[in-house]
Amino acid sequence: MPVIATNIMQPTGCIMLVSMLHWRLAIAALETVMHNTIQRELTINAPQSRVYAAIADPDQVVRWFPETLEGCYAVGEQPVFGFGEHGRSQIFVAAARPDDYFAYRWVPGANHFLGDVLSVPNTLVEFHIVPLDAGSCRVTLTESGFADLPAEMLALAYTQNSKGWDFMLERLLIFCTQAR
Questions:
Q1: Which residues of 28-171 form beta strands (DSSP E)?
Q2: Cα–Cα distance between 46 and 61 in angstroms, integer?
Q3: Is the pLDDT of residue 51 over 60?
Q4: For residue 22, what pLDDT is reported?
Q5: How far is the C-alpha of 140 from the C-alpha of 161, rounded, in Å?
């Protein structure tokens, strides 16, 4: 009688173990997907060209995002964003398509990264700007690639940047609607 009970318990135990493993893998995959991308969308009561200039013009971007910008802020270049006491971070300008798209790569979670951005794990920050009518547009910010960061960096970088974009996009909205 005990042998029969053991034989019955082993397959059940294996099924439970396999189910738990699949469950944990599913949760890990879901967490990875959930932490791979930050996306925000906002409507700004300003023309598309005005919003694009605020993001892509080095003289304007320093009025709402980094405090300083050193170097050439053009596609293929690696200028440095300065955030005062919070450090300096080199970026790689990946794309610019006036007046609807601007993108760069940077190293999240590394407030003091100076070096070749493309040689280390980084994320892609994209701004899509779509006109809604003559006087307003929709801005979609997407920062992706967190899942490719080292595990010890992922959670902090995701949380830090998620909160950071909420703050900075509010500043973009105010800058675009008030500063003309």
A1: 37-44, 68-70, 80-82, 88-97, 101-106, 123-133, 136-144
A2: 16
A3: yes
A4: 52
A5: 15
